[in-house]
Amino acid sequence: MIKHLFINKAIPLLISILLCWNEAFGQTTYTISGRITDAQTGEAVPFAAVAIKGKTVGVTTNFEGFYTLKTTQIGDSLVVSSMSYRKRMKAIVPNQLTQTIDFQLEGSEFKLQEVKVYAGENPAYNILRRVVKQKPLHNPNRLQAYEYESYSKIEVDVDNLSERFKKRRAMKQITGAVEQFDKIAGEDGRPVIPIYLSESISNYYFREDPRKKKEHILKTKISGIAVTDGSLISQMIGSSFQQYNFYQNWLSVLDKDFHSPIADGWKNTYDYYLIDTTFVAGYWCYHIDYEPKRPQDLAFSGSFWVDTLSHALVQIDASVGKSANINFVEKIKLQQEYEQIGDSTWMPVKSRVLIDVAELTDSTAGMLVKFYTSNRNIIPNKPHPPKFYDYPIELSESYKEYPADYWDKVRHEPLTAGEQTAYRLIDSVKQVPIMRTYIEVFNMFVNGYKRIPKVNIDVGPFLYLYSNNVVEGHRFRIGAKTNPDFSRKWVLSGSAAYGTLDKEWKYNFSVDYIFSRKPWTIGGISHSYDLERVGLSSEAIGNNVLFGALTKWGNVRRGYFEGITSAYLKRELIRGLTQTVGLRHRTFQPIYPFAFKTAPSLGDRSPIQSNYETAELFFETRWGKDEIFIYNENERLTLGTQKWPLVVLRYQLGMRRFLNSDFSYHRLSLNVKQSFRVGIWGRSNYNITMGYIPSTLPYPLLYTPLGNESVFYVDNAFNLMNYFEFVSDRYLQLRYEHNFEGLLFNRLPAIKRLKWRFLANAKVLYGSIHPSNMNLLAPTNAQGQTVLGFNSLGNTPYVEVGYAIDNIFKVLRVDAIHRLTYRQNPNVTPFAVKFSFWFNI
């Protein structure tokens, strides 16, 4: 009996144990690896889920899109899924222990599932509250200071090559070069043509109090069509322009402000869905998907993973689709991977940005712009002295000098096969003759000048080549300037213009010398003689090149010929503070009835004079806290002050009898301007100018606000004020504009797809004039002609208000403007609709 029981019970048990033993120690392990990329862009797809169909095992891709799956549970196919992509499967080769399976995923419009909460609230909300509460502990800006080594890579590709585009002459000539290489996107991807690739290695520094940033760019490598390895581009390809901090409420991408998914007002902007708890980068994390409540808003959709213990960001995937209120862009994708620094701070150590630029027409191609940044060797809380940060972007003098194997050693990750192909393809395409022609035409369009390499000068600008007006008739102008190939110190420029009606030559020339780039120190002399209009001088028009060119056309009221000779010296004294001093001599020769009294105390018995000369010392102090400058060849360009006002103080001292000057005078003006975010309400800009002239002077030397009688809207003008309508010797001017962006129109069902943007603005001018300046005007000139007078403002300010719709057909802005005061003045327009054209993102 016992023997029978042993046979029936013990032996089967023993067999089972032996089978389990064999399975535990003798089972087969399979290794599957590969890379997941975007089929359209060739970019890596991080955080994608990779699993064997029908099994419980799976992994996620790393930041470079690579995965390795080791399993004993083999199946017949591998499944890959990722947000905003179509799920895809590929067959597994049976009985093969090690194999490589790559995937190219096709994009798809992403829509979160409907969240139904039957009791309580959305479970993601409680996690979001903790994430937002803990933000001050995790934000890297909480550190006293930090620094790290940064590697940046930028690639620009042409994509979406339509059949019509491929048939173009230029494309036919480069087809041979393109076909030498594999498709950059991969075996299942779409073909793209790389036209630009750059790399940089730099040291990045941050200090919190006072808040300062600096990037010292050590080396750069640039290869591109229509670009050269110049200092301007080398300053812009570092990590300074790829700083994205989701712990801040707003992120600036393409000069647009996007609401962070973990911003303080998260619940008003986004919907959330708690997906799962998963193990990511060594941390158990909550996986949360999110999307904007309104697709037209400047907000992201995607996923983020937060540590279940600290509620810090570990990874984030953020996308902006073509439904958002942005132009010329099909998609923006921003991905970041974080690493814990110290006890609670989390620093983004890898960032990837993709911008998919749409085709403007069916006959053109699209464009992909890819940014990648990797940071390592992070050193926290070792601030440098404030002066160390004086130059936010510093380019090493030897940035282009390095041994052949330098980049292989310093890259944080090796180049992919596609990027290696891109370098070779760019070099091949640049050799095609028609591409050289296209490059030259492109540079002429962007810069307005035609470069003459043999003599190292640029001819132009083309906008001023021809005009026609009642004084000069047909006006022809030619100009030229030297470029850095001529000299890195000397800058020479000049132009000559001739009118067929007045048969007068107009001209200008200037010589500038750059004493130092750090600190920026430049000086120069210049002389010019040209036709001008009272109230429409080059100084009043400012940087509005198009409006300045238009003033050379048509009727010329209150015209005069002006000669100016000047010398100046400009130097950046300390970070953000630039001082200019100079000497200027002017001659004024009116071609309209004008005269002033030289001895106004004699009344009508005073001698009169029409022409005059002035000599003045001028001083300009410019203060921009944390203003960032970059250097374009022999020019210094500003990138703005970020969040601080820009302040400019000017003073002019007229010196009578010096260089035959007719007047002694003082002129003082102060300008303050700033752009700032107003939360979800949009962005505001203000510009305040005040001035005081406590001297007795002819009215052309007083302040004349800029009017605008054209059908175009001009930002720095009073758009319903006539030319030369008012004159003041003390004044206060305010220009204010608020851009609601898509805040209003995004909520209107009928028009939200049009992506219109609403703006409101107001312009106010207070001014007065001293009686002595009024009495200086003579009734007639030496020829007996009645002298044209002028008007001044009374106790009531000049006010005009307006509202505008921007982004009509992506380029058109329409302004409706109301003039509220001085509507009784002759020939005024109390209401007008004006147009302007802007290429806005």
TrEMBL record:
InterPro entries cross-referenced by the UniProt entry: CarboxyPept-like_regulatory, DUF5686
Keywords: Signal
Signal peptide positions (record): 1-26
Name of the protein in question: Carboxypeptidase-like regulatory domain-containing protein
